[in-house]
Design brief:
The complex is a heterodimer. Chain A has no helices and 11 strands. By secondary structure, chain A is mainly β. In chain A, a hairpin with a 3-residue loop joins β5 and β6. In chain B, β5 (45-51) and β6 form a beta hairpin.
Chain lengths: 109, 118
């Protein structure tokens, strides 16, 4: 069974920079896994932020960026805002199936 | 405006069945692949199933394979999830989502709660 691993929680100061990562139990994450990132706030549906590693949706703020880093998918937030406090989920595609990570709870403090 | 509204959730006993619906509007439903994703209380997201525009390609997570069936009716702009032999671990909020490209989902419904308990 494929497992996708994210940091359970991270804390960042307002205005700071933080990087969330997403690892695959099958090995290094490549662009072929089409990494996606979602933001979710309590009681809300997930909001897509990034698709195919680094592509942004029209509504994705410029401070969010996606990349591959050290064999993992990564989501970097630069100039963090208080409203960025949320759960962040990564998603990797494995052919016909797809697996979400466990999510990272980002606290802005 | 793109909208997707899930319905059909509720409380059922283990072993029972339930059919979820996702009513789509504001876009040409027949042109988009769709999927179901669920989230157990206090847990992360779990992909459940995906279906192509003409229902020719369908995939399921191992956890639901053989019990759940995804389908769509393009004439009714609707996506469905037939859930049989429900278990306590199927308790979750179920979201429908639209694919707008390869491995790219954009719009998601608000979700519907399914509770499986005796």
């Amino acid at each position: 069974q494929t497992v996708v691993t994210q940091e359970p929680s991270l804390t960042v100061s307002p205005g700071g920079t933080v990087t969330l990562t997403c690892a695959s139990s099958t090995g290094a994450v490549t662009s072929g896994y089409y990494p996606n990132w979602f933001q979710q706030k309590p009681g809300q549906a997930p909001r897509p932020l990034i698709y195919s590693t680094s592509n942004k949706h029209s509504w994705t703020p410029a401070r969010f960026s996606g990349s591959l880093l050290g064999g993992k998918a990564a989501l970097t937030l630069s100039g963090v805002q208080p409203e960025d406090e949320a759960e962040y989920h990564c998603l990797l595609y494995y052919g016909g199936t797809q697996v979400f990570g466990g999510g990272t709870k980002l606290t802005v403090l | 405006e793109v909208q997707m509204v899930e319905s059909g959730g509720g409380l059922v006993k283990p072993g029972e069945s339930l059919r979820l619906s996702c009513a789509a509007s504001g876009f040409t439903f027949s042109s988009y692949s769709m999927k179901w994703v669920r989230q157990a209380p206090g847990k992360g997201l779990e992909w459940v199933s995906s279906i192509s525009t003409d229902s020719s390609f369908i995939n399921y997570a191992d956890s639901v394979k053989g019990r759940f069936t995804i389908s769509r009716d393009n004439a009714k702009n609707s996506l469905y999830l037939q859930m049989n032999s429900l278990r306590a671990e199927d308790t979750a909020v179920y979201f429908c989502a639209r694919y707008s490209g390869v491995a790219k989902s954009d719009y998601w419904g608000q979700g519907i709660l399914v509770t499986v308990s005796s």
